[in-house]
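User: As part of a screening pipeline, I want to sanity-check one entry by hand. Below is the sequence and the SMILES for 2-acetamido-2-deoxy-beta-D-glucopyranose. Please return the complex as structure tokens so I can compare it with the automated output.
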Amino acid sequence: MGRWRMNVSTMMFLVILQGATVVLFCGWYFQFSPCNNPANQNHKVHVLLLSSWRSGSSFLGQVFSQHPSVFYLMEPGWHIWRNLQKPKNMLQIILRDVFRDLFRCEFSGLEAFMPPRSNVSNVFMWSHSRALCSPPACPLTPRGDLSDEHRCSKRCNVSGLKGMESSCKSYSHIVLKEVRFFDLESLYPLLQDPNLDLRIIHLVRDPRAVMRSREESFSALAYDNSIMVDRRAMPPADLQFEVIKKICRSHVLMIERAMLKPQPFLEGRYKLVRYEDLVHNPIGMINDIYQFVGLDLTRKVGEWIYQVTHGKGIGSKSQAFKITSRDAVDVSKAWRTTFPFAKIKRVQELCYGAMKMIGYRPVNNDKDLKNLGIELLAPLEPYEFIWLPSKAGQTADKTKEK
Ligand SMILES: *[C@@H]1O[C@H](CO)[C@@H](O)[C@H](O)[C@H]1NC(C)=O
Ligand SMILES: *[C@@H]1O[C@H](CO)[C@@H](O)[C@H](O)[C@H]1NC(C)=O
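Assistant: Here is the complex for your manual check:
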């Protein structure tokens, strides 16, 4: 009997000793060991940065891309739109399925829309992804350093797409930026997929500023416009307005789905971000956004954001990233002094619902438009949805998103 008791305590001791050894061994052997913490290898966060053209998504995309824990791709949907002209609702489904694969670091779906034997350099805007300029994809930029898209496009020469896959698999956060989704419903299967931990960041910008910026880059957007709107049906001057109307409508649809009557699986997974708020308080907003997806602001990324938003941009000087050249707040208001009131008025009419919902105040005349002392940005929260007749109390609670 005594012997048996001794055996039990010996065994217990051995079990405890073994447990302690495993814990110590895991900690010592490899910091990122799977036996250490589920947050590292198995648990990945998937972020969809949803936006529209000319809404500052290149900037916010870079904010993710430069982070050492992020694998980023800028608008992979470009490949699908280039190669598949289909009715838009069908495109959404195909796009969604390709994105599901991309979030799992599987690139064969995307490859199907690319030229045969494609290389990393065939991926749309590949050099905007810091991860594709860092090991294991390319030796140029050590992880934790900031990437320069121009140096990368000259110095990184990665053949095939294998490098992209191993790179993707080595990050905790997969961030895809896309401007080609126009509703949330087509993304519901991704939100409900137990293999994904999807967070949606919906970046919006004042449609009047978007309109002005779109006019400047009319030819660059011509192809996308032709998919958005049946071009033959209308003169080019009206086309721009038709596109902005569709964009505004998609904002309303998405915000309604996410905040008015949200499905339970949307809880904690959708965040609306206004470009103007981002520009006014970049570090504060970015901290907020990082927190939403479980990233910490690193010192280097923080310094980079400060420089980029205060006219001391380093690296990228491309069209899409104009924010580098001047003070971001000035840039965000430039449309008010350079865009004719008649056009503003038309955008305000087409986008009435979206502007009201997102907190962009209309102007009534040219004088008010050009008077930058008049603030056109209304506070975004708390949401006004409390006033809605149906199930008011319930929706009010749910709309207080973080
Ligand atoms: C990829 O690179 C290989 C070798 O560098 C080249 O032969 C091939 O044409 C490239 N593929 C494409 C689609 O450009
Ligand atoms: C990349 O590699 C291909 C084939 O190996 C070569 O033809 C091309 O010039 C290289 N590009 C750069 C930028 O080094």
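Points to compare against the pipeline: Confidence is low (pLDDT under 50) at residues 21-40, 313-325, 383-402. The CA atoms of residues 144 and 266 lie 32 Å apart.
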